[in-house]
């Protein structure tokens, strides 16, 4: 099916830029949701239960935006790709270690990952400023959510 | 953290076999949940809405067992691994195509993928018969769920 | 439509035995649901209200397993049959009397019917031990439910 | 228990006519609920899921009026009979075929069955006009429900 | 405030007849709701709890129609009167005894009271046939409810 | 699509009369729902909030019957028309003024509009008495609802 | 049934005093609930809707304590009496006028009635100080509720 | 009432432009909600049920923004007008055909109508960029919703 | 941990008396909750279902106050003890028989146990009058609950 | 508005004392709710999340009693004052520090603040013993709530 | 704790401006929530109930944004301050009078306070245009909410 | 009542073994529920709140299986015994210490108790393999639940 069956409301060049931004964000968020689950199962130590629960809230937030971002891509005529191979090749997130992790190591890794994703999202907000304000609005909402989460994870390192 | 901090209720050899089964199943189910989402976003054609909704039920079922299977691994002292790289290297599921797909092609691919996973699960049920009945019970329940889904997807090909 | 459009995960002989067990159970459960409704409308006497309500709980339980048993049959490639003529010709349950019934007579009839169905279910659990563990698991759950109901109905005869 | 323990608010001849109408309707509705379940499990083909769900809505509607009609019979002093043998001997509905059915065949059969039941209900509404307005009111409500369902099933044949 | 501030949709004579029927029914239903509460608090004996609960269902039904009947009177321009003195002077219901009552005596009294009210309602349904079909429709619904309750109370005397 | 794809349960002349009644009622109710929204947004004055909320209850009631009336038309084989041009050409309701309105003016206009619609509905109830009792039953229920609303709006003018 | 079947936890004289207080309060609260309903149906004027709704909150509060007070009487071995004749003969509340009432007149009457009941309740709180602290606690809670309502009704007269 | 009783937070010229945009959008959305209902009642053909349900989701979305857009107009001191005559004279949407429609024709018409409304909304977003950012934010949210719906309707044409 | 880590708001002697009362009540309530469960499982006979359900309401009430009483003890600096050995050595409740019990025997035993506990609670209310009014208030509420339950159990013996 | 529009159920001197107690408590509880929010936003450190959540429970409890205490004041004819200037001038609570705080410091401050408020409440309970038992009852309930919270905050310091 | 433990995603000067805007808004919203509560308790007069309820909706809206604004400050590394002394010294809102207030005076004061806050918010929206779009988006949403409330309060003055 | 009023579905020797297993499990689970409550009230220290909440989840899990296990015993004709004396004499669980306990000591004790109960349950699963598969299925489910809890408690010791 070579030609897109979905007509875009955007001009071709705007669609290309916006679609690229959405596809990059989709890949990162899927990776984030799997990393957070991985951490959820492997965290150990004195603060175990509190961190275990907070990670599931992060999974829920990531999954919610995975869906909204992918459906926004479809809505502008871009076929979203969220298969595991695509994620492995394109995710911008730092790697997460294997095996059991202490609560401290878990927190540090999550804080670093969120910081990187927030930095990228702010760049993408700029990129969409000229190409599609509707998509930008969605990214602003997502960024507000992740920055709030970032504060809550950092607060535990103080 | 070389040594597992979780004491297993199983003898060492039983734990190794059971852990292997759980880890394989975990990887397949994560792959299944991402494939079903991919299909959910990319399906097009007259039956679009019905297939779109049915795929989200499959995502929900897969995610539910992803969690139960991983936590069962933790409970017997095995650190579960569900990171994207692990999934790409170890998933037993057939590949799913990129881009927009017709409803028929979507249904055919899902039916094939479910058939393969059910075949593997029935082998794993046999493997756990001697090593851990608690894990076997979890796999029986998962198999009943996937076989029911399998029927419902096949029914549309008749 | 001579050939089944649903591919079975079971070998042919296992499928035949398992399908027979499911079809027999389906017929009995439909009969049970109609008998319990009949009793619900025709019971009279001092304990009327308590028995009237308890019968509706039995209807709900029977209807729940009617659906699960029929869909399990579909899932292994057997077309389930639950039409009234099939039920009349194949139900294993003792007959229930016509017209208004005292609470005592109602209780006695229900206790006898449940006892017979439980006896049959335990035979069917044995039959499926070699053919399909997934179906056996479903029958075990159903038997636990009916045996609990059986106790509660007997308790009123003491 | 030869004599009815429930005193009727109706005169004897009105009670006989009204009771006959209610008993006929009860038998048809039980048959309808079982036919719709049978169809629910055996439908196959491209429109499978949509028809599968719509049939369960028909089951729910039929079951709701099964109860209201039977309890109305009890309320006017008539013992309702809804046992399978009674249904087989007295149902006015056309027979439904065995085995897997295509979506088209399923729709055609349901449309025909509903048309016949609606025709009968309109005769019964006339019969109760002189004998019991309360029962007539219940039949009007039931007819409105089935005629709406009838339209929705026909709409798929256009 | 001598003149009614609410304009009636009915002609004057139809309004007078319909208003009289609604006012009589209102008074009876208030009395019924207080009698049922009285019985609810004073019943004693082996079947205490079952009768105690069933009486509260009767209170709820009576209260629901108290409101609908009074608001229907307002809607046709008749000021409804439901004060205790009005109820004492105009209620058509048989008296209910004071003090603790056995379950049997309670049931017998409620059966008798319901029979009398049903008889009166059927007369009122005839009276409104020529004056206001909308009000008649409301009385039909109320009668169906009370006749069902009547059966359930009688059923305990069998 | 010249011929109706939906077979009517009514004879041709009964269908024509009943269909006309339903189509007229549909048009009036859509108009009523838009007028009530218009009033909801434009009311000002000391009683603003109370009237603002009460208007939304009227919108909800009108919308509920818009759907039931249109689907009843479909059920008897008449294609319902609820497009704005049809509403403008056929609505029987008095016009509602533009711009901000005081609470008093709002109440007076709504009372007048409801009075007119109730008068028309009572004529339509008579028309359907010989052609379709099922439709008549629906109009009785709708009239009861609007007459109750009519009282509540008048009560504020006293 | 001359002798009370319920053994009292109180000494005879304490039981007599406490029982008298509860019976008086029961009668007043039933009267209050009927007066508030009467007002709810008959209020007219610009503030109609707000007063109409507030009266139903008063009905709900009165009914809740009707039940708690009567069941407290039963709990200390006193048969509660709440029949209409008892209420007419024993209620301490001022009479409420017949027919349609303006919002102002309605508010004034309710304020006066609440003031009188609160005065009586404070006397009854004193009476139970020596006889039953559990009953006193219930009256304190009821008084807090009615005094709050009293403020809210007075606030509209300012 | 010549002068607006609501003081605007905007300067006069900004208020005029923003108010015009909101009034145009209000009229289109009311038209859209009626068209979608019209289609909901008149669609026929094999995919009937799926399209019938999807149209009701479009009605719900349209109604939600009807209210938000009208209340935003009120909030900036503009009296919103949503009466049927205003809608007929000012709606920008293409006409929708009368009578029963096949599922394909229904889908094609809805896709075309949504495309036109989205085009207009993007122009209006530009117009409000200089006059009121709060209103622009509301239009962005509405556009995201309609573009997502547009994709889902197009997906069925592939 | 010899010294209490929780600072008491009470003087030492008041704390000792109040703590003793709370500890005694805690032990009795745990015993009551286990006795009621024991009875719930072992009751048989015609009234089985009604008594079975009523016992679970008693369990729920007992468990609710177990928690409130223990946490009140903690709040005043007393470590509560609710271990089985403590309960066996200190419970004031009469013993409950082993094995299946008829409904009558069950009721009689529960009535006796509640009477004894109520007697003790009234003594404890007096004891706390000088030491802690907050605790006394909690006991008053508990006593009201148990006395109401006591009436309902006695009512079945009449 | 010099004279109170709300008539007090209390004698003048009792009203003065009770009103003073309620006004003091109102001011303290508003302060407590703002302090707990301040702490909720500024806490940092290893136990961050647990303390962050527990503080919001304290906010909820404080806000609930803010409302009940203020409405009790209104109910006895005292105009409650909860404006920020009043709170600053009259609050009895110790000051809370500015800026980020460690979890330990947060806990210590909250424990000290609660201890002081509990001490004051116990004095106020004594003051109202002679002036208004209804108000005293409200204070007892509030004290029980705060003492339970106090224990839970202290428990973390052990 | 001199240095902020939360790393800001903003450059230092952007952080300073944005932080100032958020702190000012936080202080105003806390003041608004307390003023609205004060008004809620002290309003009297014929429209009492309607205004009393509308004020609680304003409290709820204010409290919701208090939390979101404070947590946004934390998220960009600014410690929010919401203590009463800070509010008294920094709130931009006009003062609210002490004691009982008529409904008219209450409405006038709230309208004036909202107008002032809206004016300030529109300035702050401009200030954040260059420093943080995420914060600006939050302020746009808050302004839409307050402008809608402003209209509803003004509508009562017309 | 020497003879069991409940007929067993099992042969005598199977019933004896299965009944023994259920009775042992019942006793252990009651003990576990009381120990977890004891720990819930007496835990102190830095992690107080987290452990306090997690213990209540353990209480809920234990209570759920107390009921299912006891009702399973009744269902096979064995009278279950859960009285405190029986628990003290037969519980297999290690003793739990008196008085306040640190979070670490609490965790260690719970981990040890769960390990012992899991070891016993696995033996009982073997015992029931030959006597009653239905009971075994219930034990498998219980074991899965406790092993998951065991992991979560251990994770905090890592």
TrEMBL record, chains A, B, C, D, E, F, G, H, I, J, K, L:
<comment type="similarity">
    <text>Belongs to the Dps family.</text>
</comment>
<dbReference type="GO" id="GO:0016722">
    <property type="term" value="F:oxidoreductase activity, acting on metal ions"/>
</dbReference>
<dbReference type="InterPro" id="IPR009078">
    <property type="entry name" value="Ferritin-like_SF"/>
</dbReference>
<protein>
    <submittedName>
        <fullName>DNA starvation/stationary phase protection protein</fullName>
    </submittedName>
</protein>
<dbReference type="InterPro" id="IPR023188">
    <property type="entry name" value="DPS_DNA-bd_CS"/>
</dbReference>
<dbReference type="Pfam" id="PF00210">
    <property type="entry name" value="Ferritin"/>
</dbReference>
<feature type="domain" description="Ferritin/DPS">
    <location>
        <begin position="22"/>
        <end position="156"/>
    </location>
</feature>
<dbReference type="GO" id="GO:0008199">
    <property type="term" value="F:ferric iron binding"/>
</dbReference>
<dbReference type="InterPro" id="IPR002177">
    <property type="entry name" value="DPS_DNA-bd"/>
</dbReference>
<dbReference type="InterPro" id="IPR008331">
    <property type="entry name" value="Ferritin_DPS_dom"/>
</dbReference>
<dbReference type="InterPro" id="IPR012347">
    <property type="entry name" value="Ferritin-like"/>
</dbReference>
């Amino acid at each position: 099916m070579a030609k897109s069956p979905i007509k875009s409301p955007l001009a071709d060049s705007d669609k290309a830029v916006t679609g690229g931004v959405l596809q990059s964000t989709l890949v990162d968020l899927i990776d984030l949701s799997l990393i957070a689950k991985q951490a959820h199962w492997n965290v150990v130590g004195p603060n175990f239960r509190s961190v275990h629960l907070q990670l599931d809230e992060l999974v829920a937030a990531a999954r919610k935006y995975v869906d909204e971002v992918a459906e926004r891509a479809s809505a502008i005529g871009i076929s979203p790709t969220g298969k595991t191979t695509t994620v492995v090749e394109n995710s911008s997130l730092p790697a997460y270690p294997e095996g059991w992790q202490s609560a401290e190591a878990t927190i540090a890794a999550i804080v670093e990952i969120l910081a990187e994703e927030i930095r990228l999202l702010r760049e993408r907000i700029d990129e969409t400023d000229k190409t599609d304000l509707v998509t930008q609005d969605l990214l602003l909402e997502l960024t507000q959510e992740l920055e709030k989460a970032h504060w809550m994870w950092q607060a535990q390192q103080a």
